[in-house]
Amino acid sequence: MKSKTIKSRLFSNYILFIIMMLAIGLFSFGASSSYQAQVDDMFKRNIMLKDVSIKLDLLDDELLKYLSTKNSDHLNQYMKHAEEVQVMTSDLNKTIVHYSEEDLMILDITAMVNDLIRHGDQAVDFKRKSDVSSYNDAYSEVSLVKGYISNYIQELNLRQLGNNASQYSFMKSQVSKANFYHVFLIIDLLMLSFLVIYRTTQNITNPIGYLSQSADAMSKGQYHMEDVHVKGLDELEILAEAFNRMKKSVQSHFDDLKEKAETEAKLKDQELENLKMQNLLEQSRMYALQSQMNPHFLFNTVNAAVQLSKMEESPRTMMFLESMARLFRYNVKELNTRVSLKDEINNIRDYLELLSVRFGDMIEYDFEVDEACLDLSMPPLILQPIVENAYMHGLSKKEDKGHLTVKVIYDIVDVKIIISDDGVGMSKNTQSTGIGLKNLDKRLDLFYSDHQLIIDSDLGQGTQVTLILPYGDDHV
Fold first, then answer.
1. pLDDT the model gives residue 292
2. Where in the chain is the domain with CATH 1.20.120.1730?
3. What SS3 string covers the chain?
4. Cβ(154)–Cβ(102) under 8 Å?
């Protein structure tokens, strides 16, 4: 059997409530109509008798005016009133049912009204004949009959009043009972309505409350809970079933996400371990590359400084030693740190200063540097190996004077560093197998994803090394 919907339940409750209200209303209307009819019946005869009495007074007044003035208007009014009073007495006769003593008195009043009109008509005829004595006698009869009618009406009203008093007492008791039943029905209706509203509200709000609590628990991450069960209301039952399906779907999805997150966490931990291992490996490589820097240069430089200090005592010796000290300090930097291009340029200046002290005028050098890019960030000890390589493989093997040029060109996107010498040059095999430049290129791979190291050298023609680094936003 299909359960009722919320709409059908509410509609049926409203219909029931309306029917009960309509029943109470009809009961009240029927009772009040019955009492109104009884009251009308109680006073209907009194009112009719009063109207007859008033009409007789008007009839008598118009008749007296006509007898006094013989004005036709008064005669017309008299005749009109005479006709109306006869109709009224005829209606009064229709109220006779049981021929009680009061009913017989009404018949007497009707007869006396007819007799009064007959004497009045006689008085009018005598007035037309100018028979004063006769119309006075006729009018005297009218007045006498009118007095009898008034006495009958007064007596009948008194008797009717007594009857109405007893009937009123009975009606009062009936009205009290009707009021009691009316209040009783209203109280019953209110209690029943309250009960129906309470049950209907409970049937609707309880399932919604369960759904609300379950939804609140889900919003706090509590997915493992019992399903919400609703019976009796199609919409809420469908809603509960949909909610349960959604809860299971969210729970399944959450479990999948949790499992995926745990898997990703394990992978990230593994990846982190791999990165740590790789970092250690790269540090070892950099330390190894650092240890490969020519130690003979340091030895020869120190030896030259000793010889120079023996030969002369001058400020030049101090400048030499200061350059050497700066060079030493720079060469012991951590290779995984960053410096500026300006630091690199200053370092090779110190290096070349030391070379010029050792070899005098045999080596000349110059710098062409665009200062707009001196804040370029780069790894340390990149340019010194290139200059050292130019000296060892090019200039040192030349019999006459050698020349070395360092150029830095700012190209907005890139920075070109060109180190060229006019030494003996290198063969193609030497260019491709040189350990120093290979190590330099590997170090640059650790810092840049996009760079270029170009070697252009021919035997007897000198060597040019071009280093192209991205300028980007990575500045010191």
1. 45
2. 6-204
3. CCCCCHHHHHHHHHHHHHHHHHHHHHHHHHHHHHHHHHHHHHHHHHHHHHHHHHHHHHHHHHHHHHHHHCCHHHHHHHHHHHHHHHHHHHHHHCCCCCCCHHHHHHHHHHHHHHHHHHHHHHHHHHHHCCCHHHHHHHHHHHHHHHHHHHHHHHHHHHHHHHHHHHHHHHHHHHHHHHHHHHHHHHHHHHHHHHHHHHHHHHHHHHHHHHHHHHHHHHHCCCCCCCCCCCCCCHHHHHHHHHHHHHHHHHHHHHHHHHHHHHHHHHHHHHHHHHHHHHHHHHHHHHHHHHHCCCHHHHHHHHHHHHHHHHHCCCHHHHHHHHHHHHHHHHHCCCCCCCEEHHHHHHHHHHHHHHHHHHHHHHEEEEEEECHHHCCEEECCCCHHHHHHHHHHHHHCCCCCCEEEEEEEEEECCEEEEEEEECCCCCCHHHHHHCHHHHHHHHHHHHHCCCCEEEEEEECCCEEEEEEEEECCCCEC
4. no
State what percent of residues in the chain have pLDDT above 70: 70
Q: Angle at the Cα of 270 (from 264 to 274), degrees rounded to 5?
A: 135
Tokens 């009783």 belong to residue: 184
How high is the pLDDT of residue 260?
Answer: 80
Q: Is the whole model's pTM more than 0.85, yes or no?
A: no
pLDDT for the residue 288: 42
Question: Both tokens of residue 6?
Answer: 């919320």
CATH 3.30.565.10 range(s) for the chain read 300-470
Identify which of 366, 360, 326 has the alpha carbon closest to the alpha carbon of residue 343: 326
Residues 300 and 305: their CA atoms lie apart, in Å, by: 9
- CATH class (in words) of the domain with range 300-470: alpha beta
Average pLDDT per block of 10 residues along the chain, 476 residues long? 60 75 71 61 80 93 91 92 93 84 88 93 91 91 93 87 68 71 77 77 72 72 68 65 73 73 74 54 47 52 61 66 74 78 94 84 91 91 91 86 94 92 81 66 82 89 92 64
CATH, domain range 6-204: 1.20.120.1730
Q: How far is CA 126 from CA 68, 71, 133, 143, in A?
A: 12, 14, 9, 16
Q: What is the pLDDT of residue 192?
A: 78
